[in-house]
Amino acid sequence: MQYSQVVGQNEIKQSLISGIEQNKLSHCYLFEGPKDMGKFKLAVTFAQSLFCNNFNQEPCENCNDCIKVSTMNHPDLHILDVEEKTIKREVVDELINDIYKKPYESSRKVFIIKNAHLMTVQAANTFLKTLEEPPKDTIIILLTTNINLLLPTIVSRCQVVKFKNISTKEIQKYLMNNYEVDDAKASLIANYSNGILNKAVNIINDKDEILSKRSEIINVFDKIIKSDEEIIFNLENYFEEQKDNIDAIIEIMMLWIRDITYLKNNLKNLLINKDLIDLLYEHSFLFKKNSGDDIINYLQKVSDYIKSNVNYKLTIDKMLLKIQEEFK
Ligand SMILES: [Zn+2]
Predict the structure, then answer these.
(1) Around ion ligand 1, which residues have CB less than 5 A away?
(2) pTM of the model
(3) CB-based contacts of 227: which residues, under 8 Å, 6+ apart?
(4) What is the DSSP letter of 87?
(5) Is 199 among the domain residues?
């Protein structure tokens, strides 16, 4: 895997590459970013670069070391990926044991620890002692979704690398270059991926059902705005069943109303749901205001309220009534 194949994160890539070129390496890196952001991919590419015999901005991918990394068979690349809910002290003890061994083939060893925040306090404290005086031939890369879940004493001993969301344009370009999708579909998926490339890839491979959810929700939305109050009571069961998906549902509705606003303001080229433009037109005629900002802000609040455990049913009923009012 080469850096050029990893989408986005240009600043991070550049700083890792120049670290190698100038031989200014940290003994511990901490990659922080949401799930599916490509942290592991980049960590492996970095490890490959560290082992590669012909590194020049990119790992060569042809030398013995590169091939062993690509096939995940490099004896000096250690990956810790526990399936349990925590990383226990015994696991860390074993890891530390490996850290103090000499490398088998290369001049250094690389350790990648996935979900480092899962370390128990005992495990983290044991690990901390190693971080205080790590062997010089070792580079550790910790991966986490949330830096605040790690002991501050661990964080302070690492070089923190924060992953940023990738722009919609970049994701759209990547999808068009690597999959058979047209401009409109790529843009739709990119917009629903929240700047997370793997999420976009999962949507394209149908591993993420957001697009089928979208059809369902827009259908429900259509019913809500075209019916009278009774529909709200008819939908009670539906929303009760959808409790776990409510975030995604509200997000889909917000993006839909955003599109309606854009359509009313002649900004057709900015639409996300371009493929459903006829229905968007229909809804935009029913929407009397020029801007959907109020209702979008309201929906955002509803989404926040629900997280703070307010009465779910009541909040949803109010939300549906509010939507109806806006489209009367
Ligand atoms: Zn190589």
Answers:
(1) 52, 59-60, 63, 66
(2) 0.75
(3) none
(4) B
(5) no
Instruction: Give the distance (Å) from ligand 1 centre to CA of residue 62.
Output: 5
Q: Are both 117 and 257 inside the same structural domain? A: no
Residue 314 belongs to domain spanning: 209-326
Structure tokens at 59: 């790992």
For residues 51 and 151, membership in a common domain is answered with yes
Q: What is the pLDDT along the chain (328 residues), one digit of tens a residue?
A: 888 888 889 999 999 999 999 999 999 999 999 888 889 999 999 999 999 999 999 999 999 999 999 999 999 999 999 988 999 999 999 999 999 999 999 999 999 999 999 999 999 999 999 999 899 999 999 999 999 999 999 999 999 999 988 899 999 999 999 999 998 889 999 999 888 888 899 999 988 888 889 999 999 999 999 999 899 999 999 999 999 999 889 999 999 999 999 999 999 988 999 899 999 999 999 998 888 989 999 999 999 888 887 899 999 999 999 999 999 8
Same domain for 261 and 141, yes or no, is no
How far is ligand 1, taken at its centre, from the CA of residue 39, in Å?
21
Residue where one domain finishes, among candidates 136, 162, 188: 162
- Tokens read off for 5: 């194949």
Partners of 162 in beta bridges: 32
Same domain, 143 and 263: no
Ligand 1 centroid to Cα of residue 3, in Å, is 13
Written as one letter, the residue type at 79 is I
